[in-house]
Amino acid sequence: MEKNIRGALSYVLGPITGIVFLITDKDPFVRFHAAQSTVVFGVLTVLYSVMVATIVLAILVPLVSLAGFALWLILIFKAYKGEQYALPYVGKYVQKVLGLVK
To answer: Which residue in 13, 27, 65, 91 has a CA-CA distance of 20 to 30 Å to 21?
Structure first.
């Protein structure tokens, strides 16, 4: 399977597929997308859980869900096109942790 497809698949189930590809794949492109998927969608999952548990913040759930879905689609598309698209803050953090930049 080509690396752009593996990179896109690392986003499909959010942090679950991110962790799987991060552990199993050795390609830096795929590992970057897998790590970014794990961090971004892991944080969104925690944020979503906190908002659901907090009655005041529960009104924001549809907005955050829609934004998360749009982000998910964009990241899958960028990876499939072969772009190593780094989100602000998260992308730089992931690159640093993986040793892709100094």
So the answer is: 65
